[in-house]
Specification:
The structure is a single chain. With 513 residues, the chain is α/β, with parallel strands linked by helices. 41% of the residues lie in helices and 13% in strands. It contains 17 helices and 14 strands. The strands form three sheets. It has a six-stranded mixed sheet with strand order 7-6-3-2-1-14. A six-stranded mixed sheet has the order 8-9-10-11-12-13, with helices on one face. Helix 3 crosses helix 6 and helix 3 packs across helix 9. The protein is globular. The mean pLDDT is 90.
Length: 513
Amino acid sequence: MIAVLSRRPALAALLLGAIAATGFAPLQFWPLTLVGLAGLAALVHGAPTGRQAAWIGWCWGVGHFTINNNWFQHAFDFQDKMPPVLGYFAAVGLALYLAVFPTLASWAGWRFGRRGPVDAGFALVFAAAWIGSEYLRATLFTGYAWDPIGVIWLPVIGIARLSAWIGTYALSGVTVLFAVALLMATQRRWRLAAGMTVALGIAALSALWTREPPPRPDAPLLRVVQPNIGQDARGADDQERMLAALIRWSGKPGPRPRLVLWPEGVMRDYLESGYPRWIYDGQSPLFNRWRLAQLLGPRDVLMTGHTPLRFDAAGDVVGASNSVFAIDAKARIVGRYDKAHLVPYGEYLPMPWLLKPLGLARLVPGDIDFDDGPGPRTLSILGFGSIGLQICYEIIFSGQVVDEAHRPAVIFNPSTDAWFGRWGPPQHLAQARMRAIEEGLPVVRSTPTGISAVIAADGTLLATVPHETAGAIEMPLPAALPPTLFSRLGNWAALIVALAFLAAAIAIRRAAR
């Protein structure tokens, strides 16, 4: 295998990275990700210099992230200020940057792990370096944590549930370690592969005797609405048609209290009072809230995405927020959450002094950048308890989705995945499932075009509305699990695993001497 790959290492790495990307949703060919990682390890170990190892890692990353993030192009189809064809260049450009992180892992694996043939010491160092590289990818320059390698295990959910103990980034390191162990097995060195196969097999089989916790007998109902309104049909002129679809799928009040959940980006009518009169254009915010309240029974609450505005002393608009408002049956605003982790180039334009003269603009329509909120917050909603909020992209950031001072009972994740083509929505859903497992909390997703879902606290999909389908889910609020080890440690767990790998590698090296 190594001899075949080493003839054209850059091209081989590019192809192996692309192959590894097929392990994620929607394809979920997760064994191919192991093949792609094993091939990368073989090429890195066989590189004659650290520079060559880094080059191989970068080529692998370009192939991997170009395929994995191909949905990124679709976001440019809704931007009038930039041609859609620019999206193809943007997807590749993003991959050129993200490839830096496999580059770092590959160089570190070669520099500190390569001693003689591929062995457990190299495997452990490479795995530890991968954990560090994924954490850096999730944090540098506001971070881009999309699809860490550990997400591939969701089809084998017993293994995915290891993230409740160590987190997704550390699970990625375990995956890399397993891939290198399989590479060693092709060279008739079976011990590490055999041990890991047994351990991961037990983890996989554990799913057969574990079940998600049942809801409380008195649990309120969730009503998750998906109107199937595409991004190109959500302008100001489409508000009434969109509102009619939301109302149609919101159901009717009943004897049990309902939490009615609407997606991000669907409410264009202003709900807050106190704006300058000209902004309302003849509408009344009180009437707009009253119209929503007519959908609700006396103990129901509606939570909807909204875009409130901020004004200066002269009454001019100077900011906006991507927010969720909670409206009760008396048309009162009883809770608000402002998105904190904004999307660069989507909800704000970095370095506008440089990029605007070049003709670049935000992907979200409008000229005003969004204000960022204070971070994860828990809303206390009468009759429903503590509800955590994470809007859209925020849910992908492992260890950053819960207000640590006020642990919620459920996380609501409204999103607008119509931006993301056909690959983005199932990938987004998969990452929401990983957050449910890590935190031991149910996660509820409502999106305009799908995939909306109710996810149990152990990552099980309880109900979904398929992509590009109008529909609703009504079911009792799932129960939370006790706090997981990861929910207590956060990404310190990833650091502990990485250090344990390094300590084991040092011990192996010393024993070999």
